[in-house]
Amino acid sequence: MTSLLGSYLLLTIQFHLSNLFVPMKIRIFMHRYRDIFPTIRAECITALGEWVREYKLVFLADKYLKYLGWTLSDKVTYPILPMVACFANIFIRWER
Question: Which H, E and C letters describe the chain, residue by residue?
C-alpha cells in the first residue's frame, strides 16, 4: 500500500512539474528560435527534438512541428542538420 501511494505521489509531482516547465520552455523557445545566430537556432531545434521525444503528447502536434518544417527554409545550413536528426529520430521511434 505504501509503495502504491509513493508511486502515485511521484507521478503527481512529475505531472505538476511538467505542467510548470512546458510553458516556460515554449516561451524561451519562441524568443530564441528566430535568433540571428545560427548556433542558437540549431540549439533551439535540438531542444525541440528532445521535447518531442520526452513529451510526445504535448509536442508531437502541428503547432510545434511546424518550427521543424520552417527550419528547412533557413538560409544557413547549420540549423538544418539538427532538424533532420530530429525528424529521423521521430520516424525511427514511430515505426517501432
Answer: CHHHHHHHHHHHHHHHHHHHHHHHHHHHHHHHCCCCCHHHHHHHHHHHHHHHHHCHHHHCCHHHHHHHHHHHHCCCCCCHHHHHHHHHHHHHHHHC
pLDDT in tens, 58-88: 778 888 888 888 888 888 888 888 888 888 8
Q: What is the CA radius of gyration of the chain?
A: 16
Q: What are phi and psi of 89, to 5 degrees?
A: -65, -40
Q: Are 29 and 44 in contact (CB under 8 A)?
A: yes
pLDDT at 93 over 70: no
